[in-house]
């Protein structure tokens, strides 16, 4: 592959570190030119895995030496890794392959997203990865971290990890075997525009008298209710997405308290689906905004590192999903879900 010198001179590396490691290489004019993502095995020496993930991205261009600097963004539970990886503003010189690379930004994942989604009052951020994380300002619940935005303003972000939000999708994929992947759920839900009364609920009891024709399938604390003759996989897939949207709505209500979330920013591997973000917007009765860049946290880390070096990167394109479901239909779905959710064993 022909390698233009200017391409490498303008290269910035961005890393997002959580339960997996994502690395992107961003060029000032060309945007993201390489991506690499690695799961962190349980018990792995995480610093070494990080080194390999960075090299996976750099080696796709054939020359790591021209990466100008890096930005690193940590999920809240992984701030401890900073001490393993960074020394005096650089990667630990003892790390294989990447030791000594200059770190121009190191901070939290939510700080890396502020250049894309500035947020503010009645706004919230949704990390649709595993585990799911939620962030909001001006609320009383959840743990908090202090970050600095692009204007130098200190802001307090409350956050909560909510791993069960994606459980309806896992039930269909890995436990019931109705589909093979999230892409299958997305494609089926696109066909089935109505969930036909099917609903997912946590640890629901058996149907009570008067609920004729409703079957219940239990699985790890979730039940699929409303399965009856004529219901097909597209309706079940649509119900699974609605359940995710309703779980997001409930988790945000717990985190934000009395505050009304008027706009939700979504990033992560599952946020790339317009079908899912559209359903979440319907369940929330609020717009959901995502970016075209699939590794938004890593991109944000690269952006902040580049800015520290007086290099400006082009911001990724944003996509907006507005709620389109009639209020009466949304209220009906929510009421059915809320009733089933209260029948916990």
Folded structure, characterized:
The chain is an alpha+beta fold and 345 residues long. It contains ten helices and 17 strands. A seven-stranded mixed beta sheet has the order 10-11-9-8-15-16-17. It has a five-stranded mixed beta sheet with strand order 3-2-1-4-7, sandwiched between helices. It has a three-stranded antiparallel beta sheet with strand order 12-14-13. Strand 8 (123-127) and strand 9 (133-136) form a beta hairpin. Helix 6 (182-191) packs across helix 7 and helix 7 packs across helix 8. It is globular.
Assign the structural class, choosing from mainly alpha, mainly beta, alpha/beta, alpha+beta, or little secondary structure. Answer: alpha+beta
Provide the residue-averaged pLDDT. Answer: 80
What is the helix tally? Answer: 10
Spatial extent as radius of gyration: 22 Å
From N to C, what is the helix and strand string? HEEEHEHEEEHEEEEHHEEEHEHEHEH
Query: Any idea what the shape is?
Result: globular
Using DSSP, what is the number of strands? 17
Sheet with most strands = 7 strands, mixed
- Beta percentage is 25-35%
């Amino acid at each position: 592959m022909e390698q233009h010198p200017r391409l490498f001179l303008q290269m910035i590396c961005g890393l997002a570190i959580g339960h997996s490691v994502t690395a992107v290489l961003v060029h000032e004019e060309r945007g993201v030119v390489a991506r690499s993502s690695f799961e962190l095995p349980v018990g792995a020496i995480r610093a070494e895995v990080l080194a390999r993930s960075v090299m996976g991205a750099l080696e796709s261009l054939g020359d790591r030496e021209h990466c100008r600097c890096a930005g690193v963004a940590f999920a809240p539970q992984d701030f401890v890794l900073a001490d393993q990886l960074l020394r005096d503003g650089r990667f630990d010189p003892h790390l294989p392959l990447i030791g000594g690379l200059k770190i121009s930004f190191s901070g939290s994942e939510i700080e890396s997203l502020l250049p894309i989604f500035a947020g503010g009052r009645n706004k919230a951020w949704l990390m649709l990865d595993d585990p799911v994380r939620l962030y909001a300002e001006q609320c009383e619940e959840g743990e908090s971290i202090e970050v600095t935005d692009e204007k130098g303003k200190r802001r307090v972000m409350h956050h909560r990890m909510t791993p069960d939000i994606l459980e309806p999708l896992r039930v269909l994929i890995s436990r019931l075997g109705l589909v093979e992947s999230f892409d299958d759920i997305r494609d089926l839900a696109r066909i089935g525009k109505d969930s036909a009364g099917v609903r997912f609920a946590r640890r629901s009891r058996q149907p009570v008298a008067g609920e004729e024709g409703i079957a219940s399938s239990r699985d790890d604390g979730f039940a699929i209710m409303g399965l009856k003759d004529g219901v097909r996989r597209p309706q079940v897939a649509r119900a699974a997405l609605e359940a995710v949207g309703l779980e997001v709505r409930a988790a945000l209500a717990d985190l934000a308290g009395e505050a009304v979330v008027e706009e939700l920013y979504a990033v992560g591997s599952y946020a790339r689906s317009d079908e899912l973000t559209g359903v979440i917007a319907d369940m929330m009765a609020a717009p959901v905004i995502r970016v075209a860049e699939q590794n938004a946290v890593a991109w944000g880390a690269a952006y902040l590192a580049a800015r520290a070096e007086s290099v400006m990167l082009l911001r990724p394109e944003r996509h907006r999903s507005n709620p389109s479901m009639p209020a009466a239909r949304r209220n009906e779905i929510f009421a059915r879900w809320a009733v089933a959710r209260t029948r916990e064993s």
